[in-house]
Amino acid sequence: MLIRHRPDLTDNDVTDRGLYLRRREFITGVAGLGLAGLGGAAGAAPLAFSKGFSTTEKPTPKDDVTSYNNFYEFGVDKGDPAENAGKLKTRPWTVRVDGACEAPKTFDIDALIKGNKLEERIYRLRCVEGWSMVIPWVGFPLKDLIAAVKPTSKAKFVAFETLMRPSEMTGQRWDVLQWPYREGLRIDEAVHPLTLIAVGLYGETLPNQNGAPLRLVVPWKYGFKSIKSITRISLTDRQPPTAWNLSAPREYGFYSNVNPAVDHPRWSQATERRIGEFRRRDTLAFNGYGEWVADMYRGMDLKKFY
Ligand code: MTE
Known about the structure:
The chain has 8 helices and 13 strands. The protein is 18% helix and 22% strand. The protein has a single domain (11-297), classed as Oxidoreductase, molybdopterin-binding domain (Sulfite Oxidase, Chain A, domain 2, Alpha-Beta Complex). The two termini are 27 Å apart. Ligand MTE binds next to loops.
């Protein structure tokens, strides 16, 4: 495992960029006017957003965030997604939101980006493999998208699916996982204000290797819950099947809340390596977001519901 170290980026760099983009948004007077460059498929374009809830920890250098990835649709090694995901065509792109709701709808990605108020959220990401990063995402709360389709009382869970396109996602030609990649959340988790649909990072459109054009970010859960390149979101009354749980049910549960007290069958989850750091650090319960999310799991045995 070879990781490049770039100690040159500070909080200020990120803040300044955020302020710059926000100021531009203010000057134009129209949120989302900075998005004209988003029509094309490839290439990072600046995004207009406002600052929302964030950690003050130092973000992981962009080079690491965009070159050390898990995205099995493009290969199983950390460098494969950056090398192979350029093939993915992210326009046109639609997301179908359906199931237990009154107003199912197919959303065009550019309409979604223009129609939602984008925020920057600097979140910790803890992978189940034992490494972590701090990533400045740009996106909007998933709850806004769910509200738009008017969920019914039968909406107890939310199921997510990644695009299935083996011609571009060459990893899908191999049975590493049961494709398409699938994930799920309980409805209260899905509408929690921390749960984000990300369309960018570091103030620019999401690079393909990070899940363009839109991916989920659930910061208190292991990274594999944060499904990339989503094409379908379905509200359902049943706990949906999920890719890693189907593949190795004893190793990867449905909940997968970051929990230093519950080890993976093959390794400890007590500590983690922050990419760019040498010494391992302690892993925090719920990845440090317990203050906001622990209540949702009150009374649940988190060893059983891992
Ligand atoms: N989504 C899809 N569709 N395919 C994947 O292989 N990997 C997951 C998650 N989302 C994955 C995925 C895992 S294991 C992690 S840790 C995060 O994406 C990594 O996100 P990043 O590469 O943007 O850091």
